[in-house]
Amino acid sequence: MGMNVEDREAVSPPDGGWGWAVLLGGFVITGFSYAFPKAISVYFKELMKDFNCGYSDTAWISSIMLAMLYGSGPVSSIMVNKFGCRPVMLVGGLLASGGMISASFTTNIIQLYLTAGVITGLGLALNFQPSLIMLGSYFDKRRPLANGLAAAGSPVFLSALSPLGQILLNRYGWRGGFLIMGGLLLNCCTCGAVMRPLQRKEIKTRVKGEAFSQELKEMLPPKAGQESENNNEGRPRKKKLLDFGVLRDRGLIIYIVAKFIVVLGLFVPTILLVNYAKDQGVPDQDAAFLLSIIGFVDIFARPTCGVVAGLKWVRPKMPYFFSIALLFNGLTDVCSATNTDYKGLVIFCAFFGLSYGMVGALQFEVLMGIVGTSSFSSALGLVLLIEAVAVLIGPPSAGYLVDAYKNYELIFYMAGGELITAGVFLALASFCCIKQKKSKDSPQMHHAEEENNHIQHES
To answer: What range(s) does the Major facilitator superfamily (MFS) profile domain occupy (predicted)?
Structure first.
């Protein structure tokens, strides 16, 4: 049986301790979740030859994988609230690995969509969201820095996985490469194992035997229906598996609209960049190295941006800082649309890595600042669901443009225009529609927010 709520007291985020192990796990999970769908683009040329398909057909693999990463958000939220982060992440790691291993035995592009796209994408989703939730539980004052460091996993893994994929492709073919990549994804299970729940502690003093038994119980997720919170009258209240009430927040609606536009174009350049370079006559190894350049610059951009975001005068104005990052990324795409030589592509990758890193480091910190950590699980699930629609539209649309007009220049204008539109909208909407209010980040504000929610629940 679970512990009575009256016998427990909340534990504030430690901002360190075991949180650094959680941060390391989040670093690896973020790396696989965001870098993997882009890194497998090095296999697209071979897949096009084997399955006799076009750019848009192969782009669907990464697009479906990303769509599952986003679209499974509500499912992940419900499972986390019901079973806890650790079991969900262990299952997710097995699914992600199994999907890529199964993909190595496929005989047509549809089977690749189901294995590498749907199954691996679902596995990554069941790892990604719980890792963010755990990170928000362990860090408060240092949260912008923690988010920046965890987000750095994406460029680190992109720098490593892209050339590794090209090496595996040259030595073992795409099937052998997929098989080995599936084995690497088993590391997600290891990361899930370190996600120790930050449980509430017993107030009453008990004998050593009972204390040890209680410690074992705290290591396990709460059983269905047993996790509860107190209302003002001391009666337990069941926790909602998915709280749609967060959609009443005007700031969240603005964020959702902006992120939908962002996701339409954010991943397009990285997914099609390798194929574009190969079509321009760039050798395969050099083409794959372009993603490594993006990743290398991104490695330094994300933690640095996290440090800047944690400054006292920046943190209250986070939406505007995020808007600047979006404008920077969009202008990079537009200004680099006419690059055709390798030197120009290298310069584009450097600036894209910097702007992309800023976007990656800030996106979830902005969301946490809007809804607070207590509502973050539900809000994140709903946000990712909306973004799944955009990620299904963006890369395949760019692939269709390339197939129809044989012109890569159009996709850079398309992606850049979408990022610029999102940045302008977020800045104007935040200025015109959202009144200045105190941050929800402090534990005191979280406590007051929970009390208000309890009062509304009773009335």
So the answer is: 19-434
